[in-house]
Amino acid sequence: xxxxxxIFLVGPMGAGKSTIGRHLAQMLHLDxxxxxxxxxxxxxxxxxxxxxxxxxxGFRRREAQVIADxxxxxxxxxxxxxxxxxxxxxxxxxxxxxxVVYLETTIDKxxxxxxxxxxxxxxxxxxxxxxxxxxxxxxxxLYEEIADVIVKTDEQSAKxxxxxxxxxxxx
Length: 171
Ligand SMILES: Nc1ncnc2c1ncn2[C@@H]1O[C@H](COP(=O)(O)OP(=O)(O)O)[C@@H](O)[C@H]1O
Ligand SMILES: O=C(O)C1=C[C@@H](OP(=O)(O)O)[C@@H](O)[C@H](O)C1
Ligand SMILES: [Mg+2]
Fold this sequence. Notes:
The structure is a single chain. This protein has 171 residues and is an alpha/beta fold. 55% of the residues lie in helices and 13% in strands. Strands 2-3-1-4-5 form a 5-stranded parallel β-sheet, sandwiched between helices. The structure holds adenosine-5'-diphosphate, shikimate-3-phosphate and magnesium ion. Residues 13, 17-18, 36, 47, 81-83, 120-122 line the site of shikimate-3-phosphate.
C-alpha cells in the first residue's frame, strides 16, 4: 500500500471481525487492534466485568474512547465491537479515518459461532437468537451506511475471507 490506510472491520457478533482481522493484518503486514481487547487491556478486566460493574453505558463510553484513540493511528486493522456503529461519533470516526469493511453473515452462523462463548454479555440470555435478530434490525442499516465494501463470512474460512477482502480492496 502506498499510503498507510486503516482498515476497520464492522459487523455483528460472530461475523468474524476479531478472527479475520488478525489474519488480514498478518497478510498485509499491518498492526492489528481489537477494541474489546483494548478495553480489557486498559481496565485490566474482561468485557463481562465491565458490563457488570459499569453497565452497557459504561462499556459504550469506553468503546467510544478506545475507537477514537485507535482510529488516530495509521496503517492498522481494527476489529470493532458489533455495537460500536450505534454511536454516530464512532461512525464518523471510522468513515473519516479508514476503509470500512462490513463483515456480513447469517443469524444461524452468528448463533452457532457464539453459543459456547460466555464472553458476550448481551447473549447470556435464554434466547440469544431473538437478541441477535433485534440487534440486526437496528444495526444492519448502520453497517451498510458506513461500509466501503461488504464481504460475506458465512461460507468460507476466516483465512479465505481475509484473502477476499484483500482482493476486493485491490491491495
Ligand atoms: N469465516 C469463519 N468461518 C468459520 N468460523 C469462523 C469464521 N470467522 C470466525 N469464526 C469463528 O467464529 C467465532 C467468533 O468469531 P469472532 O472473530 O470472535 O467474531 P466477532 O469478533 O465478529 O464477534 C470464533 O470461534 C471464530 O473462530
Ligand atoms: O454487539 C455488541 O453490542 C457487542 C459485541 C462484542 O464484540 P464482537 O462483535 O466482537 O463480538 C462486544 O463488544 C460486546 O460484547 C458487545
Ligand atoms: Mg470481536
